[in-house]
Write a structure and sequence with these properties.
single chain, 27% strand, 7-stranded antiparallel sheet, 198 residues, 7 strands
């Protein structure tokens, strides 16, 4: 009788171990398929790191602070394209309309980032007057007394070049930029943003 009970328990343990092993194997299979499908290469698509035009111009958000407390409420202030004007030899800034930003967003939206930009690419951005597109926000309500305008998002362009980079918000030091390649991007961005009519 004791042998039958031990034999029955041994069979139950084997069945339980078989179920656990097959569950673990199935979990590993699903994880592998997911990793293969979504390719964690460290590459980003531009439309996943930029706000789309519909949400950009109606932006409202609460900045999280330490221990879950709110640091302030912010709303969209404006979007500006700033570049060095060779005629005036000064920085020039123009307000960017929703339509112009949409045209730019559609131009670069499907591009994939450079996974590991080399020193030569990164050094191209070390200029005194880089051209950039900045999305600005301002405090809302009682925070308005602070009078602080903040840059929410920034895209820098290599003058007369093929590279641009997008700044990540609240990222770890050394990982704050994502680099992209697009032939003649500065010229195309300048053409889009400097048009006098929509």
């Amino acid at each position: 009788m004791a042998d039958k009970v031990n034999s029955s328990k041994a069979k139950q343990i084997k069945v339980l171990l078989g179920v656990l092993t097959s569950g673990l194997g199935f979990g590993i299979l699903i994880a592998s398929a997911t990793l293969y499908r979504y390719n964690p290469s460290g590459s980003y698509q531009a439309n996943n790191v930029l706000l789309d035009p519909e949400n950009t111009y109606t932006l409202r958000f609460v900045e999280p602070g330490p221990k879950g407390k709110s640091e302030g409420k912010y709303i969209f202030e404006g979007m500006y394209f700033t570049h060095f004007d060779s005629n005036t030899r000064q920085q020039s800034s123009v307000n960017v309309s929703k339509e112009k930003y949409a045209a730019f967003y559609n131009l670069i939206g499907k591009e994939s980032s450079i996974v590991e930009p080399g020193v030569e690419i990164v050094s191209l951005f070390n200029r005194n007057h880089p051209a950039f597109l900045a999305l600005k926000v301002r405090p809302l309500g009682e925070d308005l007394s602070k009078g602080i305008e903040q840059t929410f998002s920034r895209i820098e362009f290599v003058d007369d070049g093929d590279y641009y980079r997008v700044q990540l918000r609240q990222s770890a030091p050394g990982a704050e930029w994502i680099y992209f390649n697009h032939p003649k991007i500065y010229q195309e961005a300048h053409k889009i943003f400097s048009q006098t009519h929509d």
